[in-house]
Design goal:
5 strands, alpha/beta, about 200 residues, Glutaredoxin, five-stranded mixed beta sheet, 2 domains, about 10% strand, 5 helices
């Protein structure tokens, strides 16, 4: 093989990862764009901790906070959300919490495998908001609802990086804000955001 051909092969081999990465970027962006354009939040029906599919269409007209939570009954943030739910439920607020163990390495990976464990935890802590079955918020097995939520703000590189990432959804079902888990909003600031959703 001539030096010119060897050089050509080396260039192609070197460039291949970048080409594949670029193509993957395009595919992921198109997938996110398709979700954003063809789906609405009311198209989803996640499974709760009692094994029931809950069509989100029944929540039409209610502002929502959708959040991923760790399995940690000592977490103060859980009780901040619980307090918000107790105070504003009569005004229509809905909080939908999705347990995930992707960011809690101190817990076993099968921590949420048994729905009965989650039910006991919810009952023991007297949580007033809706808690769903364990899901993944990133990767190949990302829950469809969370894939949709992420696509509404970023078409690419939109992974969830921590627990307590919140999506605020207005009364029409439109996700209007993505709030990262860190830094955690003060109770006062979060309450103002909720109040704005309720008054829209």
């Amino acid at each position: 093989m001539s030096c010119k051909r060897v050089l050509t092969v080396l260039v192609l081999v070197t460039a291949l990862p970048a080409v594949l990465s670029f193509n993957l970027h395009i595919l992921e962006t198109l997938d996110s764009l398709k979700l954003r354009l063809t789906k609405k939040i009311y198209d989803f029906d996640p499974v709760n901790i009692y094994g029931e599919r809950i069509p989100l269409a029944i929540l039409y007209g209610s502002p929502m906070i959708i959040v991923n939570i760790p399995f940690d009954c000592d977490a103060k943030r859980i009780f901040v959300l619980n307090d918000l739910m107790a105070r504003y439920s009569e005004d229509g607020l809905k909080i939908l919490a999705f347990p995930t163990d992707e960011f809690s390495p101190k817990y076993p990976l099968d921590q949420f495998t048994s729905p009965s464990v989650i039910r006991d935890w919810v009952n023991d802590n007297q949580l007033h908001f809706m808690v769903f079955y364990k899901i993944f918020v990133n990767g190949k097995y990302t829950h469809p609802l969370w894939k949709y939520l992420k696509s509404t703000f970023d078409l690419y590189d939109n992974d969830i990086n921590e627990d307590y990432t919140m999506f605020l959804v207005d009364k029409s079902g439109k996700p209007v804000e993505r709030i990262p888990g860190t830094p955690w909003l003060s109770t006062e600031v979060l309450e103002k955001r909720v109040y704005s959703l309720l008054k829209e």
